[in-house]
Amino acid sequence: MDDPTADSDDDLDPRQAIARLEDQIERLEAKLESCRKFAAAAKLAMVLGGVLLLGQMLGVVFFDALALIGAMAALIGGFVMHGSNNSTAQGVAAELAQAEADRATLIGSIELRTVESPATTLH
User: Fold this and answer.
1) What is the pLDDT of residues 16-25, one digit of tens each?
2) Range of the domain at 91
């Protein structure tokens, strides 16, 4: 996700680098949420394909060659989509953890100043 045209963290003010990392974290979180949705769709396809296939084998569902092919395609497609999506989600989660660690390091490097509260409060 590194953009070669973007400034490196060394060239940025820590606050700008933190803002850039927060944008990156938001994008990664959205991508991870998309992976979760695809995982749910893959599991649904596997379950529906398996139920249809089992129903045809047991005679509960009328045997039809097209339904058999559809059930097998859903079952196999669900496995493939789940495997591919799982590896993508793991990669995104690792990137997210690294971006959050980088952000925490930058926040820790900023010299924060204490803001004094006024002795009296005016209402």
Assistant:
1) 989 999 999 9
2) 14-107
